[in-house]
Design brief:
Layout lengths: L1 H6 L7 H9 L7 H36 L8 H38 L17 H8 L2 H30 L11 H41 L4 H12 L2 H22 L5 E4 L4 E6 L9 E7 L1 H12 L4 E3 L1 H10 L11 H16 L5
Parallel strand pairs: 1-4
Antiparallel strand pairs: 1-2, 2-3
Helix pairs in contact: 3-4, 3-7, 6-7
Length: 359
């Protein structure tokens, strides 16, 4: 059972797994959401700019047809006429195409954020594998796409049917005969616009559902086993053996630095056998005496050996040695409560150095 739990992909993907997939260009993305949003926004934009677009096109066509009566058709005149027509056409189409581009970019940004990956432009021969392609045709993903496509057809058909039924129920069919061609055209445009707006809104709702499904499917495909999560944590935190080796080297380096600072100490306070603490005091550079080295048992013996070799005084004070060893870290100044006890020892040491006290 333990083996089964470690090999089954039951865990949600970690942030590192998601980041690695994103760096390879794999993200949760629904193309239908972009298409539906652009379609709905396009109809809204056409409705908002419809009057201006019609007026601009009317003026452009009037100018073009009016110039047909001009008899002086020179190459320069034709070029100027074409340039003006292109300019007017760009003025008409720019807001529409610009709106489509903006809504496409905004929808993509809402889905995946800002992302660029030039690695996806590289050709992938595996995509040309016929066997993989056949398997994909009969995969769960293809089945879901088929069901979703059928659902879209049903929704579009139902929305269209009920909207047209509602509109025709309020229209007097016999009265249409008496309408002018312009009125019939206006009624048809209004009917088509209402239908298109409702169909695109329904498609947008389905596309949002598809996006949430794509997001769920994406995380589902990236699920991890417990073993993979343990391995990832090991890679992030580092192998325990390597970390232990690094800590060992760091301790050795710290011990070497500590031993090299003992010759500069003023005194070594001992237990006498279990603890040894080396103190240094510089009235100019230090506010209080500082512990430059400390150790117990074998390290304490080594500290005392180095102190004797460099003629550093050894002073036996069991309570003070224990307190300094347990409460003060190497490189730290002694606490204020120990000032008096340490001051007595340093005074004794200074007298020794001056030769005023016999050893």
């Amino acid at each position: 059972m333990a083996f089964s739990s470690d090999t089954e992909k039951t865990e949600q993907p970690t942030s590192k797994r998601l980041g690695d997939a994103r760096s390879k260009g794999s993200v949760a993305f629904s193309p239908d959401l972009n298409s539906a949003a652009s379609l709905l926004f396009g109809f809204v934009l056409l409705y908002a700019l419809g009057a201006n677009t019609y007026n601009s096109m009317y003026k452009t066509m009037k100018l073009s047809l009016g110039n047909l009566l001009c008899k002086d058709f020179t190459p320069d005149f034709i070029l100027d006429l074409m340039a003006s027509q292109i300019y007017e056409l760009m003025k008409i189409l720019s807001p529409i195409f610009g709106g489509f581009v903006l809504i496409g970019l905004a929808t993509s940004y809402l889905q995946i954020g800002f992302m660029y990956n030039f690695g996806m432009l590289k050709p992938n021969i595996n995509k040309l594998n016929i066997i993989s392609g056949i398997k994909n045709l009969f995969s769960t993903k293809s089945l879901v796409k088929l069901v979703f496509s059928v659902l879209k057809l049903i929704v579009v058909g139902c929305v269209s049917f009920f909207y047209i039924k509602k509109e025709f129920s309020t229209v007097n069919i016999t009265g249409i005969i008496d309408l002018s061609l312009v009125e019939i055209f206006g009624m048809s445009v209004k009917l088509m616009y209402g239908l298109a707006l409702r169909v695109s809104a329904a498609l947008l709702i389905l596309a949002v559902l598809d996006f949430f499904y794509q997001k769920w499917q994406f995380k589902h495909n990236l699920r991890m086993t417990k073993g993979e999560i343990k391995e990832e944590r090991k890679q992030q935190d580092g192998d325990p053996l390597i970390k232990s080796k690094i800590r060992s080297i760091q301790r050795q380096m710290a011990m070497k630095r500590m031993m090299t600072s003992i010759p500069a100490a003023d005194v070594v306070v001992t237990n006498p056998t279990h603890y040894a603490v080396a103190l240094k005091y510089d009235s100019v550079a230090m506010k209080a005496p500082t512990v430059v080295a400390k150790g117990s048992d074998l390290i304490a013996m080594r500290i005392k050996e180095i102190a004797k070799k460099h003629k550093i005084p050894l002073v036996e004070d069991k309570p003070l040695a224990q307190t300094l060893y347990k409460t003060v870290e190497i490189g730290r100044e002694i606490p204020q409560k120990l000032y008096h006890a340490v001051a007595k020892i340093l005074s004794y040491v200074y007298q020794l150095k001056k030769g005023n006290t016999r050893v």
